[in-house]
Every structure is written in C-alpha cells, then in structure tokens.
Amino acid sequence: MQDVLYVLSKLLWLPARPGTFALLLGLVGLAALWRGRRWGRWPLLAGLGFYLALLVLPLHQWVQLPLEERFPRPAVEPAHIDGIVVLGGAVEQNLTEARGLPALNGAAERMTEPVALLRRHPEARLVFTGGQGSPLHGGVTEADVARQLWLSLGVPAERMQFETAARNTHENAVNTLALAAPKPGEIWLLVTSASHMPRSMGVFRAAGWKIAAWPVNYRTGHTVAVWYDASFPVRLGEFEWGLKEWVGLLAYRLMGRTEALFPAP
C-alpha cells in the first residue's frame, strides 16, 4: 500500500503542479479557439492569468509565509543537544553520481547547519534520513551524498548515522525513530526547510517522537525587495513548492499521518 501511495503521489503531482496545469489549460483553450470554439477563451485566459498574477503579485511569498512562520526558530540554542535529525531533500543524487562531487540544491542549509551545530555541541550525534526521493533514480541515495559531503567537511564517521530507505516525510519519521531510538528526556533537533516544518513536525509527533523544530532555508520575508527580487522561474518554483506543502498537509491529515491539519508549536 505504501508503494502504491508513493507512486500515485508522484504521478498525480506531475500534471497538477500549477505551472504545468496552467500551460495545459492554455493549450486546450488555444486549440479550441483554433477550431472555432468560443469557450476556448476561458481556459486560455485562466492559464495566461495565472502566469500574469505570478508576475505581478508575490504569490510565491504569500503561499509560503504562513508555513515558514508556524514554527519560529528558537531564540536561544539549547545548552545540551543529544541528537540532530536532518531530512533529505537538499541533495542532488543523480548529479552527484554523474560528476562524483556532492551536489546540493536550493535547500543546502539543511546540510550546512547541522555541521555548525555539531561543532558547537560535541555531545550530539547526527542522523540523516533519505533514500530515493524520485521514481527515476540511479544507484546513489540521498544518504550516500550526505555521507560523502559531511566526511569531506570533517565530520567524524562515528558521530553520524544514515537512514537509507525513506522516500517521503512519513517514512523519514517512522524509519528514523526506529534507527535513532531516542531515550526519554533526550533533546533532539529536527532540521528541515522552514516551509516543510509544519508537516514534518506533525508526522514526527504522530510517530511518537517529541522532537524540537530547528527550521532553516527560509525563502520569505516582509520587505518589497524580498517579494520582488526573484526571477519569474524562481517565483514559479517557489509557488509550486509552497502549494505542494499545503496539499501534503491535507493529504497527510486525511491518511492519518498527522494529528492536526496545520500542526502548531
């Protein structure tokens, strides 16, 4: 069942992602108008209207702001940290396999922040969770890339553990809980993108782990410069990421993987 849900989530998102859906709408409308069907103007206008709205309005910011501000970053760092859990999603395993060097994407702070935390907390151990996040992949897992990167940055091998089978956030939580086996009273931090934190915290709580949020990779702000600085392709990608998180929150709640629609601190 888990495999079926995983494949369905990937297949359904492909045509449903806003950029693709708006393009398909526009093409349907254009084809209808070409054949003399007046109703074609409506899907054409809807598709073009989406792109125009994304160009004029900071939709990519608005869709992510509530997500990123749901779990504020702690003002004071804990004096003692037993462990750090890092979710996959920041590495490019196919590029790493092709070029032999650890490749990171726009969520690279997920990979750099834990290293800084480890240097300040020699008592902490580091757990990375991430297998193959895409149905089309090679032989390198996200965990393989993380291991290669962190070893090159001087992180001792004995301080690291790697969960290599998880394909989504639910599996991240369940598999990592079994691997790390945190003891009662221990302080663990969850490191992931700020916009991904609400769903992540909801899933970890449902799995039975009282972990502390440590968000990174912020993509929003409250200034005009932040709202309009990004190029159009970046805006589209950020909007799609934010919308996917909202869809994920709803889907995980319906599947019983979280105990709240919009988890809060």
TrEMBL record:
Gene3D superfamilies according to UniProt: HUPs
Record keywords, A-Z: Membrane, Transmembrane, Transmembrane helix
Residues annotated as transmembrane: 12-32, 44-63
UniProt cross-references to InterPro entries, sorted A to Z: Cell_Envelope_Assoc (IPR051599), DUF218 (IPR003848), Rossmann-like_a/b/a_fold (IPR014729)
UniProt domain DUF218: residue ranges: 82-248
Signal peptide boundaries: none
Protein name: YdcF family protein
Organism of derivation: Siccirubricoccus soli
